[in-house]
Specification:
With 323 residues, the chain is an all-alpha fold. The protein has one domain: Orthogonal Bundle (ADP-ribosylglycohydrolase fold). The protein is built from 17 helices and no strands. It binds ADP-ribosyl-L-arginine and magnesium ion (2 copies).
């Protein structure tokens, strides 16, 4: 499959804005139980400025560093985190402490066990990883390495690392797919299984469950999705749900985000991950304009994010034109 450079650029923008949209529209529901989240679903059609949280904040920081470095460089990423991450944007404790330590001058390889001695299995490394999925979409082995390397700054627990691998890979596979061609969900699960080979059993079990659910051909109710795949802040209880929802609901972006929010729990993060995957599949032009116009602008808002996605594509293109 060969996609035109213009379409690939549109897909890079689709993934970054898709994450921004899912995060900003999902954040008002974070921590609700599924029934309450579904009850408030009409709030999505109200119009007001929607702010982003840590999910987008870290995604933008990671993309910025990758543009500067031409790929993943943990030392540079940690500098970027300490420079631009805004800890007032709903960060969780493990990542807050790691970034504060970076700001205080500790090295990137010293900060990931400050709060949790075995490392964090939160979904923080997965929620920010879409730039890796974009940049390495044509090199899945490189993608796996890069996803773990960027995770290691804050999330050295295998569940945290491999959650980032699963999310990055799903974004990467979505970039490579032509949305005009028939979408083979089963093939996507097979590809994911291959890349997650050797990882924690939790992801193998989740993929088996996703395969079983996909094979039934119906869209499961949110209650069943939570029961089978989770809606938590833990990477292994949120990344599989995001992956399943994106597989089942693409190419309808709004439908996919609504389904993610209706799970309750970690809604900004699951919707952000779903948004990145579906956005990578369909591209920016297919994202809902009436939702995009509600996103906050300003120093690191909508215009900044669009420009950054463009520059990430340029950085990728520069390497691929000359290789
Ligand atoms: N922080 C939140 N939500 C809280 C409410 C925010 C509020 N609305 C506000 O505005 O202030 N959301 C964000 O955090 C999640 C990503 O978390 P991350 O970056 O992985 O952080 P952390 O602390 O490393 O892990 C999250 C929690 O998971 C549990 N945990 C992780 N590893 C553990 C271990 N080894 N042992 C025990 N527990 C572990 C802890 O409860 C961590 O705090 C996203 O939802 C993002 O949106
Ligand atoms: Mg958040
Ligand atoms: Mg969250």
């Amino acid at each position: 499959m060969s996609l035109s450079p213009d379409f690939l650029r549109d897909k890079f923008k689709g993934a970054i804005l898709g994450c921004f949209l899912g995060d900003a529209f999902g954040s008002g529901f974070e921590g609700m139980d599924p029934e309450k989240a579904r009850f408030h679903m009409d709030d999505l059609s109200k119009k007001f400025t929607r702010s982003y949280t840590d999910d987008t904040d870290m995604t933008l920081a990671l993309a910025e560093s990758m543009i500067q470095s031409g790929g993943v460089n943990p030392e540079d990423i940690s500098k970027q985190f300490s420079l631009t991450c805004d800890l007032t944007r709903g960060y969780a404790i493990g990542t807050i402490k790691a970034i504060l330590a970076l700001k205080a001058g500790m090295k990137w390889y010293e900060v990931a066990r400050i709060v949790f001695k075995d490392g964090s299995f939160g979904n923080g490394a997965a929620m920010r990883v879409s730039p890796v999925g974009l940049f390495y979409h044509d090199d899945l082995e490189g993608l796996r390495r890069a996803a773990v390397e960027q995770a290691n700054i804050t999330h050295v627990h295998p569940l945290g690392q491999w959650g980032a691998v699963m999310q990055a890979c799903t974004v990467g596979l979505a970039v490579s797919q032509d949305p005009e061609e028939p979408f083979r969900k089963e093939q996507m699960v097979t590809d994911l299984r291959e890349i997650l080979w050797g990882g924690p059993i939790e992801y193998v079990k989740a993929l088996n469950k996703i395969e079983e659910m996909v094979a039934q051909g119906k869209k499961f109710h949110s209650r069943e999705i939570v029961q089978h795949l989770g809606n938590g802040v833990e990477a292994h209880l949120s990344v599989p749900s995001a992956c399943y929802l994106a597989l089942m609901h693409r190419p309808d972006f709004c439908d996919a985000i609504r389904a993610a929010i209706s799970l309750g729990g970690d809604t900004d993060t699951i919707a952000g991950m779903v948004g990145a995957i579906v956005g990578a599949h369909v591209g920016e032009k297919k994202l809902p304009a009436e939702w995009i116009e509600q996103l906050e602008d300003g120093a690191r808002g909508l215009s900044f994010a669009k420009n950054l996605a463009d520059r990430l594509f340029e950085a990728w293109w520069k390497i691929h034109q000359t290789s």
